[in-house]
């Protein structure tokens, strides 16, 4: 994987943040970096962990 400056943003803490594509996330699953059943959402190139199925939302 190659990181390009156009795809790097600054995180709130000032640390560099990189956006990912669906193909890159699929490659991470294929390589074993992520589990196939790991619950994540890819939104605008950022990935977020999802609640486990059946977990209640807190108000």
Task: Record the SSE blueprint.
Blueprint: E1 8-10, E2 16-18, H1 22-31, E3 40-43, E4 46-49
Antiparallel strand pairs: 1-2, 3-4
Write a structural description.
With 59 residues, the chain is of the alpha+beta class. The chain has a domain at 15-49. Helix content is 17%, strand content 24%. It contains one helix and four strands, in the order ββαββ. It has one helix at 22-31, and strands at residues 8-10, 16-18, 40-43, 46-49. The strands form two sheets. It has a two-stranded antiparallel ribbon. A two-stranded antiparallel sheet has the order 3-4. A hairpin with a 5-residue loop joins strand 1 (8-10) and strand 2. The termini are far apart.
Q: What is the compact description of this entry?
A:
The chain has 59 residues and is an alpha+beta fold.
Characteristics:
single chain; 59 residues; alpha+beta; 1 helix; 4 strands; 17% helix
Cα-to-Cα separation, first versus last residue: 40 Å
Tell me the series of helices and strands, N- to C-terminal: EEHEE
Number of helices: 1
Note the quaternary state here.
single chain
- Percent of residues in beta strands: 15-25%
- The backbone outline, from C-alpha atoms, is flat
Q: Would you tell me the structural class of the helices and strands?
A: alpha+beta
Could you tell me the number of beta strands? 4
Please bin the fraction of helical residues: 10-25%
Unreliable parts? none
Arithmetic mean pLDDT: 78
Please give the largest β-sheet: 2 strands, antiparallel
Q: What's the alpha carbon Rg, rounded to whole Å?
A: 14 Å
Across the major sheet, the strand order is 1-2
